[in-house]
Amino acid sequence: MNFHDATQLIQSHLDVVETRIRAQADAFDSEVASYIAYVCANGGKRLRPVMALLAGGAAGGMHERHVDLAVVVELIHMATLVHDDIIDEADLRRGEPTANAKWGNALSVLVGDALFAQALRLSTIFETSDTSRRIADATAEVCTGEIMQSQRRFDTALTIADYLAIIEKKTASLFSISAEMAACIAEAPPAYADALKIFGTKFGTAFQIYDDILDFSDDEVAAGKTLGTDFHKGKFTLPILLMLAQDPATLSLLTRDAGFSAIREAITSLQRPLGESRALACQYLAEARDSLSVLPPTPYREGLAALTDSIADRLTALSL
Q: Which CATH architecture is the domain 3-317 placed in?
């Protein structure tokens, strides 16, 4: 099963999710609605909703509350992207101008805040307060990860363990909550929820490593974002940390504020930083796939496995 096959399993539900995300602008005053609509329309692959819906099916069956979960987690994700682009001063997101590029930082901060608020408001629809609380906890984890990353900008003492702790919070936590809460909403056995939590965490960590490798590609259109923003803002991602470990002399490139092209050339010329980054991402994907063995064999479980395969295929296709 490939990614397309996996999404076909849940396409009717995914269509409802997309319609509801795009309709979120209607919850705001007319003077605000156009800003929300712009951000909501630039959706990408909706990986977190896809995971929530497939996990619901794999855990015992999807229903309306899984659609609610998918909408909530995607709104939180979009809010984080708006804020990320402000912090990074990025001009492009998925090939389109970012909110901050269109309207400036001040207004864009408020748009991101509005999306966070709307997501948490929608989360109150769940039957138990525990679901809403867990979603709020995951949102706090995302923000904590972003704060940790900002605190460690230009910090050459940052370790790979530090980096992994940061991305587990800022990226993996939303994938984790998408999968785990899907099992809880399906009233699945605790073992299923635990396995899906692990799956989401491992997948999300691998996905962020993949994204960090992609930042050193030479194709901004394919990447769908402004390249080099992590480096320029002092975010030492895995390829940079491995470059420093392999050749400490390259620290001089960072301390003398060398351009992004010089850093990319150093990383690609050393080869090992990108190769080892890819290997670690593939390891996390394999562990994510293994965690699914607890679940009964269904097309939905195979769909989740196909998500890991799709990222593994992207990693393999990268020219390093």
A: Orthogonal Bundle (1.10)
